[in-house]
Amino acid sequence: MQNNQAVTTSLQVAETFGKRHDHLIEAIKNLATENLGVKNFFHEDTYQNDRGREYPMFYMNRDGFTLLAMGFTGKKAMQFKIKYIEQFNLMEQQLKSQVTIASYMIEDSIKRAEQWIAEQKEKALLEEKVQEQTVVITHKI
């Protein structure tokens, strides 16, 4: 935990995905340069190797990790992407089922209709966000 967020390090990510750490550092710096909004996803720091030499590393929150990992290729990266998509789809299904149930539980027909309209608007917004995220995920794969 760092600043009340669960984080991982570029060292851990490099080891897990079988990537060279120096390449990961470069990829993170490129991400931060290309889009100023992602700078909050990463925090630069240093670590000491076995010989006491200091090298750069990054801490990253979940968003930073996800953004970085979506650019990876290889078997482990594909497994991560597929799991990510599966979880996103599951979340979408759960949200849709929650939205559908809520309006039908109201006995007053006018309030039920008003709730249904509000739910349909919320559902449309969620579907739009899901579509935007799907385009981003598909583009990265």
Explain this structure to me?
The model has no long low-confidence stretch (mean pLDDT 83). The chain has a 3-stranded antiparallel beta sheet. The longest helix is centred in the last third of the chain and has 32 residues, at 109-140. It is built from 5 helices and 3 strands. A hairpin with a 5-residue loop joins strand 2 (42-48) and strand 3. It is elongated and about 75 Å long. The protein folds into 2 domains: 7-69, Arc Repressor Mutant, subunit A (Orthogonal Bundle); 75-140. With 141 residues, the chain is of the alpha+beta class.
Brief description of this entry?
This protein is of the alpha+beta class and 141 residues long. It has helices spanning 10-17, 21-34, 62-69, 75-104, 109-140; strands spanning 7-9, 42-48, 54-61.
Q: What is the helical fraction, as a range of percent?
A: 55-70%
Over the alpha carbons, how many angstroms does the gyration radius reach? 21 Å
Helix-strand topology string? EHHEEHHH
The outline comes out as: elongated
Q: Could you tell me the number of beta strands? A: 3
Number of helices: 5
For the record, give the distance between the C-alpha atoms at the N and C termini, rounded to a whole number: 29 Å
Strand residues, percent: 5-15%
Low-confidence stretches: none
- Please, what is the average pLDDT? 83
The largest sheet, given as strand count, sense and whether it forms a barrel, is:
3 strands, antiparallel
Number of domains: 2
With strands numbered from the N-terminus, the spatial order across the biggest sheet is 1-3-2
- Counting helices, strands and paired strands, the structural category is alpha+beta
